[in-house]
Specification:
heterotrimer; A mainly alpha (327); B mainly alpha (282); C alpha+beta (515); A: 327 residues; mainly alpha; MetI-like fold; 0% strand; C: 515 residues; alpha+beta; Dipeptide-binding Protein, domain 3; D-Maltodextrin-Binding Protein, domain 2; 4-stranded antiparallel β-sheet; 22 strands; 25% strand
Chain lengths: 327, 282, 515
């Protein structure tokens, strides 16, 4: 095993790293284009003609005449080639123009702004809770087979099986009403964020703990660790210097996956707790048939996860040289 | 041991599903005069706000969410495995391209994507099934592709190719059987994922049609009376937990090499379990 | 073994949690100062004046209207002290003196004119509702309004929330709306999106000053969450609690439950287009005869509501008293369906081998709506009618309704909102109405409604509306289901709260916090 110092020296010079990161960046850029295409095409894929949907909405439900429709089409460029329409839409989107919400009549970008900040807050706290899975997993691995390990495993297994909407109701009743420790729902203060964040994190924290536990146990049984220990290196040193570093790649990977799961959880949990986030906004937009809002949400979520993925891959490449080739 | 727990729990599910006549009543039979009854001999879990038998609805619920989840998994597994095995076997550019697409699908929040897709397609059971399968195939594609790459190097596959067995023949007769145990493990996990997703969407009012005996929907409706009648949300919630827990434990047991080594019936159990899993939702 | 035990521990913890939920002691509501916190179903959105949103200005009394509606739904002086109609198209309003806006500027006829003109300019449907041609400030406190046709319902219409009087400071230099500056007892203070809106007492108010110093309108859309917030002591008053919670909360001494019949009506609107099964009036009548409204009130609303057999409550002189009832009559329903060409095969109604299938739309943003819809659907289904239900939110449902892809849409309106039938009949059922998505047109009905709005209160007017309502009833254009009983719950500290029958007025100026 190279020492940490050697490894850092290698980073700057390693052409494999530079190459891997460049490949990732190009791939990420490609995905962004893909996301924007998906968002653009999502509304074109609606049953019926999108120009008609839009004009019907603008006329407050009156069925537009054919001539009005034709005029609307040419005024708004719906008769242009689809690629041209996409580019025009893209330019508008880049300047923050995502159209108007059918529900409120306000710009979609305005609605998204509040939703995104609320969701970042909630999912950020959830993610911090999920990170607790790392120390929990380490403890479980060190005391593998002990009661703490068993309890953790049990909670992880049960936590993954509880439907989050049900869990949210139970927490709301228990902590909000029976114990009265926390606000039962709503938005605005740190106290409000606790319950929804815990509910979202429940299903993921166990997954992370289990991955950490398994990876660590494997590493500790690996030859090099046993060699180091037999050479008289302190067990804790072995753990911190070698095992933890080597478990970084699988743990980072699973954390990246949990980032996606956290948002999935937020959709339901935000709805139950009345949290004005992007998840609830998306669910409501679907029920509202508020297509510009759905489109905006697709775009924001898609781009966010391309970026998250890029960050995770970069972190893995920096920490674990073996992973570079496969990126 | 945990495999046995899983099997017991799944067994309950199988019993519930295989014999819907176990349900004492028609799950849709409305009786406005006999609403919100406590458990009794006639209604072992009482009645809901429309006087429908809760136990009957729970049992019939086995035919909604798990069945829809099974369709999701079957479609995702079939499509994903076909793509994955082909990519793994052909290799080269096709493989690279396919795996890049798979990577791309996997980085997005699946539930959110499914929700958005169903928003475009229109709310309804089948658009949800399609949307969930549409994001889930990638897991199968990645797994089966990796398996195919490993197996491709094995002597028996190369021998078959040397003997002039057709491409499709190798795929179906050689690679697929080798992949099945791993796919079964994934399928147990993805079934539980699909069940939770589907119930969640129904809870939000984006899944099963209102009035259906669907667990998530039952919880959503029971919220109106949950304070005075906690059993109404406890029962369907526990039903979901039981089935999902059973599937997860089963998956753990199947995936754990230690269990496999220790267990006297390692391979057969998987296949039997898989069949029971199918039956539970048929 | 290990796993078994782990699971047992987890499951036990869960069950313990559930059991605790069963027996819940109420938390204590204590605030100490004079801020009343109310949990509301809708977000108040004080920085916008479109549609439903501006209703908040009236219900919270940031703004006053020229004419007000008392607790018996009778017209009362608001910013106008009296009104008269010297000619068929001319109304004269004498305005209250010594009234100031929240920014200190005086209220007079010029201010009223400016406000009404801004409203008509900014809200596209306001012109349709008000039928105003010109507004003139005849002297400092006399307002003359010329309507573009004889319009007797104008004073009633001026009780509508959208006609609240905005001070000039409510608009920017370009005439766009900025924030509400009114003459009411409460002054707008702050708004936090998706959270709350705060108003404070306006000491320059022209009427009796309120007791409370502040009111915090907290937005809690979910009915359960709102009730839990009340019980947990987070809010003092929860508007629109669930019927299922009424009995439980009534029994607890820490809370008071308020119930009062309101002007709201839940009804199913038929799509009367010729290509739909319910395009046939006989089918609509038959369906009306199949649904026992008593059962809907009991089954969907835990008894909190009044069965509705006709469109308006018969507490008005202009409601016909002798209409044939749609009380359940399955034999008559079967006859009507047979006349329309349907026959019952294996208990299911069909025609030409096609089952009678109804696509029912409704929305879940009003929590009780799915319950009512499902109960109605279940009753129809029991009688052999196939039903499919689609639940959206209000805008989502409206989108589908506009496209005409439905048979029944179950909705909630407040037909009696202004104490005059014109508003609802003209805007929902008149063939020229913009909101008429039911594809129903009837010349006799149109004529009666067009006549009624020109007539002053009296026998002639009542006769015209009785004719219109008789046609509406005979044609079975809607299936009235339940008259809403408005429910709110409060901690016992809240004193002096009364429910206004319009459902759109809190009257917090008479509310205090005791104990």
């Amino acid at each position: 095993m190279p020492s940490n110092r050697q490894r850092q020296g290698a980073i700057a010079a390693d052409p494999a790293l530079v190459q891997a990161l460049t490949r990732r960046l190009i791939y990420g850029a490609g995905l962004m284009v893909g996301v924007s295409l998906a968002a653009f095409l999502s509304l074109r894929a609606l049953p019926g003609d999108f120009a008609e949907v839009l004009l019907t909405y603008q006329m407050a439900g009156e069925i537009p005449s054919q001539s009005a429709l034709d005029r609307f089409r040419s005024e708004h460029g719906f008769d242009a080639p689809i690629l041209m329409q996409y580019l025009r839409w893209m330019v508008a989107a880049l300047t923050g123009d995502l159209g108007m919400s059918f529900r409120s009549g306000d710009p979609v970008i305005e609605e998204l702004r509040l939703a995104v900040s609320a969701t970042l807050w909630l999912t950020g706290v959830s993610f911090a809770v999920v990170l607790l899975g790392i120390p929990l997993g380490v403890i479980a691995a060190l005391k593998a087979g002990g009661w703490w390990d068993r309890l953790l495993t049990g909670l992880a297994v049960v936590g993954m099986a509880i439907p989050n909407f049900w869990h949210a109701l139970l927490f709301m009743l228990l902590f909000g009403l029976v114990l009265g420790w926390l606000p039962s729902s709503g938005y605005g203060t740190w106290a409000h964020v606790v319950l929804p964040a815990l509910v979202i994190a429940t299903s993921s924290v166990g997954v992370v703990a289990r991955v950490v536990r398994r990876a660590l146990i494997e590493q500790r049984q690996a030859l090099y660790a046993r060699t180091a220990r037999s050479k008289g290196v302190a067990p804790l040193r072995v753990l911190t210097d070698h095992c933890l570093v080597n478990t970084a790649a699988p743990v980072l990977t699973v954390l990246g996956l949990q980032a996606a799961r956290i948002f999935d959880g937020a959709i339901v949990v935000e709805t139950v707790f009345g949290w004005p986030g992007l998840g609830r906004a998306l669910a409501e937009a679907v029920l509202n048939r508020d297509f510009p809002m759905i489109q905006g949400a697709i775009l924001v979520i898609g781009i966010a996860y391309v970026v998250i993925n890029l960050l995770v891959d970069t972190a893995i490449a920096l920490i674990d040289p073996r992973a570079r080739a496969s990126l | 041991m945990s495999a046995r727990v899983g099997l017991v729990l799944l067994g309950i599910a199988v019993v519930g599903a295989a014999v819907p006549w176990l349900a004492p009543h028609d799950p849709q039979a409305v009786d406005f005069l006999g609403r919100l009854q406590p458990p009794s001999a006639t209604f072992p879990l009482g009645t809901d706000h429309m006087g429908r038998c809760v136990l009957s609805r729970l049992l019939h619920g086995l035919h909604v969410t798990p069945l829809a989840a099974l369709v999701v998994v079957a479609v995702a597994a079939a499509v994903g495995t076909a793509i994955g095995l082909t990519a793994g076997l052909v290799g080269g550019r096709l493989d690279q391209f396919a795996m890049r697409v798979v990577d791309a699908v996997l980085i997005f929040p699946a539930f959110a994507v499914a929700l958005a897709v169903s928003g475009i397609l229109g709310i309804g059971l089948w658009s949800i099934v399609l949307a969930l399968a549409g994001v889930h195939w990638a897991d199968y594609a990645r797994l089966s592709r990796n398996l195919a790459v490993v197996e491709r190097g094995q002597a028996y596959v190369r021998a078959a190719e040397a003997l002039g067995v057709s491409f499709g023949g190798v795929l179906v007769r050689r690679l697929l059987p080798a992949a099945v145990p791993h796919l079964v493990v994934l399928a147990t996990y993805s079934l539980s994922w699909a069940i939770l997703s589907f119930a969640g969407l129904s809870f939000l009012g984006l899944g099963a049609e209102p009035g259906t005996a669907e667990w998530g929907l039952m919880i959503a409706e029971a919220r109106h009376h949950m304070r005075a009648h906690p059993l109404l949300i406890a029962a369907p919630g526990l039903a979901i937990v039981t089935v999902v827990l059973g599937l997860n434990l089963l998956g753990d047991a199947l995936a754990d090499p230690a269990t496999r080594r220790r267990s006297p019936f390692s391979r057969p159990i998987k296949l039997r379990a898989a069949k029971q899993g199918d039956a539970s939702c048929a | 073994m290990r796993m078994t035990r782990c699971v047992a521990v987890g499951a036990a913890a869960l069950l313990a949690g559930l059991l605790m939920v069963g027996a819940s002691p109420p938390a204590v509501a204590e605030d100490g100062d004079e801020t009343l916190v109310i949990g509301t179903m809708w977000e108040s959105l004080p920085l916008s004046m479109t549609a439903r949103r501006s209703r908040f200005f009236n219900e919270s009394e940031i703004l006053d209207t020229l004419v007000k509606m008392d607790f018996d739904m009778q017209l009362q002086p608001g910013l106008a002290l009296s009104w008269s109609r010297p000619s068929p198209t001319q109304w004269v309003f004498e305005l209250r003196e010594d009234v100031v806006f929240h920014d200190g500027t005086p209220f007079d006829a010029a201010a009223a004119k400016h406000s009404l003109e801004r409203v008509i300019d900014l809200l596209p449907y306001a012109a349709d509702l008000l039928n105003i041609d010109t507004i003139t400030a005849a002297d400092t406190h006399a307002l003359v309004i010329e309507t573009n046709a004889p319009f007797a319902a104008l004073p009633n219409q001026l009780t509508d929330a959208i006609t609240g009087i905005y001070g000039a400071a409510s608009f920017d230099a370009d005439g766009a709306f900025v924030q509400p500056v009114g003459t009411g007892p409460w002054r707008f203070v702050e708004y936090n999106p998706q959270q709350n809106t705060i108003v404070e007492r306006f000491d320059g108010y022209w009427g009796d000053l309120p007791d409370l110093a502040q009111i915090d309108y907290r937005y809690i859309p979910d009915h359960h969450a709102r009730t839990i917030a009340l019980e947990a002591g987070e809010i003092h008053l929860a508007a629109n609690i669930l019927p299922g919670d009424v009995e439980r909360l009534s029994e607890e001494p820490a809370f008071a439950v308020f119930q009062a019949p309101s002007a709201g009506l839940y009804y199913a609107a038929f799509n009367a287009a010729a290509d739909r099964p319910v395009g046939d009036a006989r089918v609509r009548r038959a369906l009306n005869l199949m649904v026992d409204r008593e059962l809907i009130v009991a089954g969907a609303l835990d008894g909190v509501g009044e069965p509705a057999w006709q469109f308006f409550r018969d507490s008005h002189d202009w409601v016909p008293q002798d209409l044939p009832s749609y009380a359940p009559d399955l034999d008559r329903a079967a006859e009507l369906l047979a006349e329309a060409g349907y026959a019952q095969v294996d208990g299911r109604w069909q025609r030409d081998g096609e089952p009678l299938t109804l696509e029912i739309l409704s929305y879940s943003s009003r929590t009780e709506m799915p319950l009512i819809t499902e109960a109605m659907a279940a009753l129809l289904s029991q009688q052999g009618v196939e039903v499919t239900i689609g639940l959206y939110t209000w805008p989502g449902m409206l989108d589908l309704v506009r496209q005409g892809d439905y048979d029944l849409s179950v909705v909630f309106w407040t037909p009696d909102m202004i104490g005059h039938p014109d508003l609802h009949l003209k805007s929902q059922f008149h063939s020229a109405a913009e909101l008429n998505y039911q594809n129903w047109a009837h010349a006799g009905f149109d004529a009666a409604v067009d006549l009624g709005r020109t007539l002053d209160p009296g026998l002639d007017r009542d006769a015209a509306y009785r004719e219109a309502l008789t046609i509406l009833h005979d044609e079975a254009v809607v299936m009235p289901l339940v008259f809403k009983v408005y429910v709110a719950a409060a901690s016992s500290a809240v004193q002096g709260f009364r429910i206004h029958p319009s459902g759109f007025f809190y009257n917090f100026k008479e509310v205090g916090l005791g104990g």
